[in-house]
Amino acid sequence: DIPLNIVYEDDDILVINKPRDLVVHPGAGNPDGTVLNALLHYYPAIADVPRAGIVHRLDKDTTGLMVVAKTIPAQTRLVESLQLREITREYEAVAIGHMTAGGTVEEPISRHPTKRTHMAVHPMGKPAVTHYRIMEHFRIHTRLRLRLETGRTHQIRVHMAHITHPLVGDQVYGGRPRPPKGASEEFITALRKFDRQALHATMLRLYHPISGIEMEWHAPIPQDMV
Predict the structure, then answer these.
(1) Residue 211 placed within a domain
(2) What is the distance between the alpha carbons of residues 67 and 206, in angstroms, rounded to a whole number?
(3) Active-site hit among 10, 32, 59, 195
(4) Where is the Pseudouridine synthase RsuA/RluA-like domain (predicted)?
(5) Is residue 137 part of a domain?
């Protein structure tokens, strides 16, 4: 019985704000208790739609906005829109290090050659493009706004680690907590307790798959990232 935090709904689509610690698709180790299970529970008819209407994923511990198709025509059109890069997805993140300027990472991504659950930058990988801009500087961290042009698995996390600025809390790609010199005990404790990647899907913009109207949603940064 997983509550879906629904931000928007009509006959064709719904937009949810996914919490942390929630897997999108059932898989090894997560047979149930996923977004897909919740969708089938609340919307039995969505069983007829491929992948229960899920057209893009968020990692288990990434929070924020996801669009779901409730009908096959909506699903077909949304998948097309994603492929044509007509859907805009922006993320808030906190990266390790003092970054001096925004930019673009354009590096192909594939499965890691030895660690099967990890992804890596690899010349034979699929094209991947991440744009980022600086929102705020902290002592040894930088708050970023990122825009995805492609949607590879773990894309932002892999790209930021590749440019030596992994996301805070990202145990997989090197974002272990490193408190700045002279930090308060309170800050050090908070940083150590932050056990997920600091990544939140904050904005989603798309053309409605049936009406064609441009729509946009925003999800505020979750409390644990503030």
Answers:
(1) no
(2) 9
(3) 59
(4) 12-162
(5) yes
Q: Give the pLDDT confidence of 170-204 residue by residue, as tens digits.
A: 989 986 666 667 777 776 666 666 778 999 999 99
What would you report as the CA-atom Rg of the chain, rounded to the nearest whole angstrom? 18
* In contact, 117 and 22? CB cutoff 8 Å: no
Domain enclosing residue 168, as ranges = 90-193
**Residue 107 shares a structural domain with residue 57:** no
- CB of 123 closer than 8 Å to CB of 107: no
Q: What is the pLDDT of residues 59-107, one digit of tens each?
A: 999 999 999 999 999 999 999 999 999 999 999 999 999 999 999 999 9
205 located within any domain: no
> Which two structure tokens, joined as six digits, stand for 203?
């904005």
Distance CA 93, CA 199 (A): 5
Amino acid at 89: R
Q: Is 224 a catalytic residue?
A: no
